[in-house]
Amino acid sequence: MTEPSAKPATASTVPSADTAPLSDAVQQALAVSLRGCDELLPQPDWVKKLQRAEATGQPLRIKLGLDPTAPDIHIGHTVVLNKMRQLQDLGHTVIFLIGDFTSMIGDPSGRNATRPPLTREQIEANAQTYYKQASLVLDPSKTEIRYNSEWSDPLGTRGLIQLSAKYTLARMLERDDFTKRFKANTPISLHELLYPLMQGYDSVALKSDLELGGTDQKFNLLVGRALQQEFGQEPQCILTMPLLEGLDGVEKMSKSKHNYIGITEEPNTMFAKVLSISDVQMWKWFTLLSFRPEGEIAALKAEVEGGRNPKDAKVMLAREITSRFHGAAAAEAAVEDFHRRAAGGVPDEIPEVALVGAPLAVGALLKQAGLAPSTSEALRLVEQGGVRIDGGVVSDKGLKLAAGVYVVQVGKRKFARVTLTA
Predict the structure, then answer these.
(1) Based on C-alpha coordinates, what's the Rg of the chain?
(2) d(Cα 127, Cα 132) in Å, to the nearest integer?
(3) Name one GO molecular function term (predicted).
(4) Which residues are annotated as a binding site for ATP?
């Protein structure tokens, strides 16, 4: 079995990290690496790699793999993308790896059941949008984009068997999710055992110096280190980033849990969603999503603890995130929209809805106008004082509206101009 072709790695003898003092540049790179991270393993090896890069002028190869299991990226994904951008800005080579091959297996990380593999058509459709969205964070001119089918498809059956011989079943079953499923007699399909192996083989193919991932990817990243050693390569270091809790402040951000912010969402919606997070959660988001210096964030936190309104800090965070994905002008417009709504004003542009059936009950009107998912939910919103018509709070669940034009507001962000006819 031959090693797949990739850009050659450069090795050079440099002073030992244990004996040589760290230069300012290496100290800065280490600080950037450690900001917000959960683990950097092994840190002494990473220091040596940074020293080598400084001595030789050869940038390090930093890998992030994402399987295109859904067409959209949310800001939870950008936690690792932000770290990639920070390391990219230090001059290192960033490899954005699209797992078009591994997506057909399905990542079992954190799963208590077999993940259904995607079809080739689903993968290709999702992959088309992935890099375009990631480029809103990464610098496209300094990013190497790769697909792991480049080396995984040519591997073939013989190569896969030879690769499998380099890792034991006992080590594979040390994985926490596999162990739990095995003890619970929950089925584990053989193809799932191939996923960490193939992700690790990506590191061999790319000769990566550092691989990034969420904390749930630690086992897979370590497999990459082990396989690189099997192939006679210098093993990569691994850097894991915390998983970002979503808008509920509890569960990991996920589209399936409806607690996410998509990076292509409308700027006003993105801005408002960031403002909806808790004051406590805000500081973790600052660390993981903001590019502000840590000292500046610490000073801002001290001001809030000293009495400054935490909403001021949250507006800063929301403006920065919205500006990153939509530009400064759109972010400022979102700020103005927020202040207008907070003052009870109506946005300049709201949906126009035409309904028939006057007189129409308020619950039915909200449902038909798309402002509530059901009549019962609409009535619950009325009961809670969350519905306004022409600026006045609706308190009567039995209200019926005659023919006319109404500005209807639900909560702080949902508006519609409803034209109701008989």
Answers:
(1) 26
(2) 9
(3) ATP binding
(4) 255
> Could you tell me if 264 and 133 are in contact, meaning their C-beta atoms sit under 8 angstroms apart?
yes
Place of tokens 């808008």: 247
Of 111, 76, 99, residue with least CA distance to 149:
99
Per-position pLDDT tens, the chain of length 422 = 655 654 433 333 344 445 568 999 999 999 999 999 999 999 999 999 999 999 999 999 999 998 877 667 899 999 999 999 999 999 999 999 998 888 877 665 554 455 566 777 878 778 778 888 888 899 988 899 899 999 999 999 999 999 999 998 888 888 888 888 888 888 888 888 898 999 999 999 999 999 999 998 999 999 999 999 999 999 999 999 999 998 888 888 987 777 889 898 889 889 988 988 889 999 999 999 999 999 999 999 999 999 999 989 999 999 999 999 999 999 999 898 877 766 667 776 788 899 999 899 999 999 999 999 999 999 988 888 889 887 778 888 889 988 777 889 898 778 888 988 87
Closest Cα to residue 289, out of 250, 327, 263? Answer: 263
Task: Give the residue numbers of the binding site.
Answer: 255
CA distance 26 to 92: 13
CA distance 382 to 372: 11
Please give the model's pTM, rounded to 2 decimal places: 0.73
Residues 239, 231: Cα–Cα separation, whole Å: 21
What lies within 8 Å, CB to CB, of 401 at 6+ separation is 358, 359, 360, 362, 365, 389, 420
Structure tokens at 11: 């090795």
Question: Cα–chain-centroid distance for residue 19?
Answer: 38
